[in-house]
Amino acid sequence: MKLLLVNPYFGQDETQKTEGATHSQPLGLGFLATYIRNYSDWEVEVVDPVPQGLTQNDVLEKVKEADIVGLSCFADTRFYCFEFAKKAKEKNPRCKVIIGGPFTFALHREILIHYPFIDIVVRGEGEETLLEIVKGKDILKIDGVTFRKGKKIIVNPERKLEKNIDKYDLDYSLLPPLECYGTDWEASKELRTLRTLNAIVTRGCPFNCIYCSNIHWQRVWRSVSPKELVKRIKKWVNELGIEYIHFYDDLFTANKKWVLEVCHLIKKERLNIKFRVLVRVGTDEETLRALKIAGCRAVGFGIESGSDKVLKRINKQITRRQILKTIKICKRLGFWIVGSFITSLPEETRQDYEQSLSLVPLLDTFAFNIHIIYPYTPFYLELKEKKEINDEIWFDKRYEGRILYTRENFKSASYSLPELRWMRLYPYYYHFIHRPDKALEKYGILFGALIVLISLVDTPLRGKIFDLIYKFRKIYRRLIY
Fold first, then answer.
1. Which CATH class is domain 183-433?
2. Nearest one of 47, 61, 66 to 6, comparing CA atoms
3. pLDDT tens across 381-418, in order?
4. Distance separating alpha carbons of residues 221 and 249, to the nearest angstrom
5. Strands 2-6, 68-72: pairing kind
6. pLDDT digit string (tens) for 320-367?
7. CB–CB of 7/72 below 8 Å?
8. Looking at residue 216, what DSSP letter applies?
9. Distance CA 28, CA 101 (A)
10. How far apart, in whole angstroms, are the C-alpha atoms of residue 389 and residue 214?
């Protein structure tokens, strides 16, 4: 019996093979594959078409041999998932088509109503649920699934979250080779040269920011034990030759005691490893210092806004003063600091935006993103109550891809899409002008100097020139590396 787990995204042109694309590893599928292989006799294969250079037809040939096809589904690539699910069912009518992932948690019933070729939707944490499915347990007795029985859609009870997640490991040999994926492009030049592994060792976040789609973890934070984490790090270093770990956890520092114990054990085992984690604004100096001693060289923050008014509106539970204090501590300790911002948050004004902009020079690098709407976040429910959105929008091809909080889509939004495109791009020029040293450090002398010079020139063509430099740099790096 065979389980085929697919990330159903094929790039811009599904008829062409796409090689060498920078692309995040499907870690979630890796956890599922490892668990099924460890606790059943099923054959398991994970497919990630873009970095593997596979076309849709290549993957459909694999579907012919599968008994179950599992697809990961995200809000911005949902139609890729639905369309591939249909083709998979046509190619192999006897296989069960199962989908899961963040997008499915809230819209499980609606998905089955719209797409009769999907057999089962897995809601929330998938390891135990999928194992019970492959072992042939009566589906009526499997928690965490929604399925079709005749013309009727059955919604089984929620599955309780597993407290001990030490049992959920990831065997990287089940994923495409590490070389198929890029290094941490937000890190310093030194860190980008190291052999990199992306890892997840905690699940969930205890906070309730109104824009966040993390509802499938039920606002609960869990972690592997410190001993298990250090055991895994030793394995990654010794067997895979890993020099730098980019921890993709939503919040690595939710439990101070856990962090300090992890750092103590890394030091005790004399592990020569560098890593990056996402920390929360307000993390104390003792925790940050312990991370630095253990090998942490880069920290990321979900800042979102520099405005206290906006931070309060989105229920971030941090203040501008805390942001400045935490950045100051991190700079003193010598971390490479990465900040992420969101513009077009509810009721944001230009003054609020400028307060965010003023924080940019304090960071080594950053990301400025337009506010994306996700289903059944607290803010989504606000929009539904005001009748600015309804669940059908997720199944309307006119809204394919990301649904942005812009004036074109929502009456209550502050900005139009053209305004937001500029507001998203301008902070990068602002950063290069105020921190030319970081442009040189990140992009090298040649391309860093070009970027700084272009940033100083106020011209409508600046964005296009900037894009050309970036694309040429990618080609240049491929040639020399």
1. alpha beta
2. 47
3. 999 999 999 999 999 999 988 999 999 999 999 999 99
4. 10
5. parallel
6. 999 999 999 999 999 999 999 999 999 999 999 999 999 999 999 999
7. yes
8. G
9. 8
10. 20
The answer to whether 279 and 323 are in contact (CB under 8 A) is no
The domain limits of the chain are 2-155, 183-433, 435-481
DSSP state of 156: P
Average pLDDT over residues 12-37: 70
Residue type (1 letter), 159 = R
The answer to whether 300 and 277 are in contact (CB under 8 A) is yes
Mean pLDDT, rounded, of the chain: 90
CB atoms within 10 A of CB 71: 23
Report the distance separating Cα 340 and Cα 371, nearest Å.
12
Q: What is the pLDDT of residue 463?
A: 55
In this structure, whether the domain defined by 2-155 belongs to CATH 3.40.50.2300 is answered with yes
* Predicted confidence (pLDDT) per residue in 119-155, tens digit: 999 999 999 999 999 999 999 999 999 999 888 999 9
Q: What is the Cβ-side half-sphere exposure of residue 239, based on CA atoms within 13 angstroms?
A: 9
Q: How many residues does the chain have?
A: 481
Task: With H, G, I as helix, E, B as strand and everything else as coil, classify residue 247.
Answer: strand
Residue 179: is it exposed, middle or buried by C-beta count within 10 angstroms (0-12/13-18/19+)?
exposed
Direct distance between the N- and C-terminal alpha carbons of the chain, in angstroms, rounded to an integer: 41
- If one counts every other C-beta atom within 10 angstroms of the C-beta of residue 113, the result is 12
Q: Which residue has the tokens 């407290």?
A: 163
Among all chains, which residue has been given the structure tokens 């600015």? 388
